[in-house]
Each structure stands twice: as C-alpha cells, then as structure tokens.
Write a structure and sequence with these properties.
Oligomer: heterodimer
CATH superfamily of the largest domain in chain B: MetI-like
Radius of gyration of chain B: 28 Å
CATH topology of the largest domain in chain B: MetI-like fold
Largest sheet of chain B: none
Strand content of chain A: under 5%
Number of domains of chain B: 3
Order of helices and strands of chain A: HHHHHHHHHHH
Number of strands of chain A: 0
Distance between the termini of chain A: 52 Å
Number of helices of chain B: 11
CATH class of the largest domain in chain B: Mainly Alpha
CATH architecture of the largest domain in chain A: Orthogonal Bundle
CATH architecture of the largest domain in chain B: Orthogonal Bundle
Largest interface: A-B, 66 and 66 residues
Order of helices and strands of chain B: HHHHHHHHHHH
Chain lengths: 290, 294
C-alpha cells in the first residue's frame, strides 16, 4: 500500500488556506452542540415538570416485562368468544367503510365551495375552511362521545363519529386536490363554449377523480385503525373487547386480540394498495403513516 | 362534415370500431362489477354496524340540542354572559393543557430519536444485512399498527395512571410512523455522495453521517414537526384511558353532563391545536425556505 506518512492530512494547513469553509464547520458544530444540549435539557425539564421519577420508570418496565411474559401464548379462551370477537371485528371494518364513504359523499360538494379555482368568493371559502378545521380539530373519540348522546351506544355511533371527523379531513383534502389540478383542461372546455359548471364537470373532476379515490382508500385503511379503538368509549367494534380484556388483566386474550387487529390491518392494507394500484395505474408512491 | 378530414376506408375502420366498442364494453362491465361489489359491501356493513337511518333522523335534533346545550350554564344563561363561570376551572385546565403539550412533545422527541436510529437500518438502499432490515421493518410496522390507545392501556396497567404511560404510548407509535417515513426519505436520497464517501475509506456509520444525513435532515425535521401536530391531537384524548393530559377531565365532563365544561374544554383543545398548527407551519416554512436557498 502507499505510505500513509507522506499523505497525512494537513489539517492546520487546510484551515489556514480555506478559513471561510473550515471556520463555518466549527460554527456549525457549535450550533449543533447547542441544539443537542437544548433538546436534552428540554426533555429532562419536561420529565421533571411531570414529576416522573426514575424508580417508577424502572418498576414500570419490570411490570411491563412481566405482563408481556403473561401474554404468551396468545389465547382466545373458547370458540364462542372467538366468534363474538370475529363479529366485533366485522363491526370494526363496517364502521371504517361506512364512516369513510359517508364522509366522502358529504364532503365532496362542500369541497367545491372551499376550492379557490371553483369558488372565487373568499368569505365563503374562509368560513367553510375554518368550519372544516374546527370539525377536524375535535378528535374522533370526542365525536363518538357526542354521537353516543344522540343515538345511544353501539357501532352506529362509531360510524357517525368517523363520518364527522373525516368530513373535515376530506373537505380539506378534496379542495386541495381541486386547487392542484391543471387549469388548462378547464380553459379548453371554456374555449369550446362550455360554462362554469361544464368546466368543473369536464375540466376538473375527471382530472382529480383518481386522486380522490386513492385518498378515500387511504382513509378507509387508516380508519380501520381508528375503528379498532373507538369501542373504548362504547361506540362498537373490537375495541370494547380489548378494553375489557385489559381491564380484567386477561393478558393472553389481549395478545390474541392485538394479533387479530394486526392481521386485519395488514389484510386491509394489502387489498387497498392493490385497488389503489388498479385505479391509479402506478404503485402507490408514499403512504402517510398514521 | 368529413370533407376536410382524412378517414380510413370502411374496411379498415370497421375492425378498429369493433375493438374500441369491445374495450369500452369491457371497462363498463368492470366498473359495473366494482359498483355491485361496493354496494354489497355497503349493505353488509350497514347490517353489521346496526345502521338505523330512521333513528338518526328521529334523533338528529338531539345533536343540535346537545351542541346548543353545552353553551348554556347551569343557571340557563348563555355561557358568554358569564365567562368567569364558564371557565371556572381555567387554571386547572391550562395546567392540564400544558401537561398535554409536554406529553406530545416528549412522545414526539423520544419516538423521533428511535426512528432516527432505526430508519437507516430499515432503508433498502443502506441496509447492510437483509435480516436486520426485515426485523427493523417489521418492528416499525408493529409499532404503528397497534393504536396509541392500546399501548396507552397496556402502559397504564404497568406504569400506573399519569402522564408517563401517555408519553410512552405516543413515543412507540411515533417511532413506528416516523421510522417508516424517515426510511422512505433515506431511500429517496442521492446515493452518489454515499459511494464517494465510502470510496475514501469511511466506515458505514461515517458514510451515513457525512453523505446521507445532510441530505435528509431537513426532511426529518419537517416530518417530525408534522408528527408533533398529530401527537398534540392524540395526547388530548389519551387521558380517556387515564394516561395524562386534558382528556380525563373532558371524559368526566361528558359522562357526568357538566355541559358548559364540555364546551370550555373542547374550545381550549381546539385553540391549542390551532396555535400549535400555526406555529409548526411557520417553523416548517422556515425550514423549507432554508433548504431551497442553500
């Protein structure tokens, strides 16, 4: 090999010759060190402000390890319970599907009113956007509590809760999709003698329909996850049984339920990415994980 | 009309027309089939989810009634006539909102640190061993598929009530979600610098540090901020299962019909979410601006 001695890095020499580049590096390093320090300090301060002690940390992890030990092997108990859980799982899937579809149907007309290239009147747009933000700002579980007050306990409250939150989400997503559409096709429709409605119907909607469909599919996917926990407040689905199993410390059943959820979500993910592939014609580029 | 247009002779046109009609027919059948499947699924889920549209319409006034009711105080006055009475627990609620924010912050930071470490192992273009990569990817999947509240319930059982299980639940979920996004960012990074640095004799960690990290850091920060926004929303309800924050008080207010408290707490949550969204939006724009200017 070549002799390393003569090729020793002349750091001081480099420093003298390129002061601008090298000094910048030092300044950046100082800034980075400060940022790391601030990060660590803020985390420590955060834990301190919540009165969390190290001893609780350690005993907690020991307890967690014990619980995880109790989880194996996952077990559902008896067949009757398994059937009950499968029915609850079906409920969860139904809640996700119906809630998302209803939200999409309701949000579509509203999104037209919130898109800049369709509704030029900014006060209308502003009001609708803030309204959608407010609906979205209230979590699904809070909506579930409200809907339970309206129509009672059960999966239907879950459907309505998901519908409400996603009405806000879809309204925003759809209107953004409209705004991102290429205006040229709409201009073409106008140039061919079409009116405003024709422009939207033939110039905009065909362009963004695949986007909307893939957003709907994506939210069905993510709502399957939300619908598994909505039962915690009594709005149907597998969450009810999961909460019960955890409250009664039946850890083997908990593990079984979690496995059921994992498998279901994986299957739904697979199916929906296949359907999305069929609709858009190219592999899904990036799913925003929730 | 056709005088200016060049048309194929009928004999050649005919098979083309037939092929077109055939293709259209096929597509139409496909769409009809998909529609029928969807309709079947909707009816089936309607039955499973016990959808009762008539009950909904019969009781829809209860929704408006409920929303109106939460804006009245105990003495049947509108809430804004007596703000002091409406926000009687402001001091306690603000403390809980603060706790909620700290839970979201700590959960995001801890999760992001974990994701930062794991994403390089899970990225296809950097993976040194397929076995390690498989385990990293599966682990991240597990962390983000199990809902936060399930982790929260589990951690409440082992750590006891309070903010600690909330922080850990958010951290685990954040680890899974950010780990996936981070590894995708890494996979989209330009590999030429990596090859260059490796060619100078750098080890794997050094190459990652000097070739990949500078490319991905601003994206990491931006995704981290987005996740913080999501976590703020989540930490507001994680108290439903006793894992700290404002959620516990909200649940109690709803369950015990403290109507005006419900509106007060929900408004505080909405304000908190809106402020955090605005703040992170500004920071993110700053980050993106710096990335484009450099």
């Amino acid at each position: 090999m070549n002799n390393a001695g003569s090729e020793q890095l002349d750091l001081d020499g480099l420093m003298a010759r390129y002061p601008a580049v090298m000094a910048g590096g030092r300044r950046r390093a100082a800034r980075l060190a400060f940022a790391c320090f601030a990060l660590v300090a803020s985390v420590v301060a955060g834990f301190a402000s919540l009165d969390i002690s190290w001893s609780r940390f350690i005993t907690g992890f020991a307890e967690l390890a014990r619980i995880i030990g109790l989880m194996v092997p996952p077990d559902c108990g008896n067949t009757a319970r398994l059937l009950l859980w499968l029915k609850a799982l079906g409920e969860t899937l139904s809640i996700a599907l119906l809630g998302t579809l209803a939200a999409a149907v309701l949000a579509f007309p509203v999104s037209l009113l919130a898109a800049r290239n369709i509704t030029p009147a900014w006060p209308v747009r502003f009001t609708i956007r803030r309204g959608l933000d407010t609906i979205r700002g209230v979590n699904t579980l809070i909506w579930a509590l409200i809907w339970i007050n309206v129509i009672g306990l059960g999966p239907f409250a879950g459907v309505l809760a998901i519908m409400t939150t996603d009405f806000g989400t879809f309204g925003k997503l759809f209107s953004e999709a409209f705004e991102a559409a290429d205006p040229k096709q709409g201009e073409g429709v106008i140039a061919a003698g079409g009116g405003e409605l024709h422009r939207v119907r033939f110039g905009l909607i065909p362009q963004i329909l695949p986007v909307l469909l893939s957003q709907i599919l994506y939210l069905i996917e993510s709502n399957t996850r939300s619908a598994t926990i909505i039962g915690i407040v009594g709005a149907g689905g597998i969450g009810q049984h999961l909460t019960e199993a955890i409250r009664t410390l039946e850890w083997q059943q908990v593990a079984f339920l979690v496995l059921m959820i994992l498998v279901t979500v994986a299957v739904i993910d697979f199916v929906s990415s296949r359907v999305r592939f069929a609709i858009i014609g190219k592999p899904p580029s990036r799913g925003h994980a929730t | 009309m056709s005088h200016g247009l060049l048309t194929l002779p009928e004999t050649q046109l005919e098979p083309l027309r037939r092929a077109y009609a055939h293709a259209r027919q096929k597509r139409r059948t496909q769409i009809l089939l998909a529609m029928a499947l969807l309709l079947g699924a909707i009816i089936l889920s309607g039955i499973t989810a016990e959808v009762r549209v008539d009950t909904l319409f019969a009781h829809i006034d209860r929704l408006s009634g409920y929303i109106a009711r939460i804006f009245y105080l105990e003495n049947h006055q509108l809430v804004w006539t007596d703000p002091a009475e409406w926000f009687w627990g402001l001091k306690k609620w603000l403390r809980l909102i603060g706790e909620t924010l700290i839970i979201a912050y700590l959960g995001t930071i801890i999760g992001a640190l974990g994701a930062f470490v794991l994403c390089f192992l899970a990225a296809a273009n950097l993976a040194t061993s397929q076995v390690v990569r498989w385990f990293a990817v599966r682990f991240l999947e597990f962390c983000r598929t199990v809902p936060e509240l399930v982790f929260a319930l589990l951690f409440v059982a082992s750590f006891g009530l309070g903010p600690l299980p909330g922080i850990l639940a958010l951290a685990v979920h954040t680890l899974g979600a950010l780990g996936k996004q981070y590894s995708e960012v890494v996979e989209n990074a330009d590999m030429k610098p990596f090859e260059g640095v490796t060619a100078t004799g750098a080890t794997w960690p050094e190459s990652v540090r000097f070739a990949i990290l500078p490319q991905v850091l601003s994206n990491f920060a931006s995704y981290g901020l987005l996740r913080f926004e999501i976590n703020v929303r989540e930490s507001a309800i994680i108290g439903f299962v006793g894992a700290g924050g404002i959620g516990q008080d909200l649940l109690v207010a709803v369950r015990r019909f403290y109507y005006s408290d419900v509106s007060a707490i929900v408004l505080l949550i909405i304000a908190m979410v809106a402020i955090i969204d605005l703040a992170t939006e500004r920071v993110r724009r700053h980050l993106i601006g710096r990335e484009q200017s450099s």
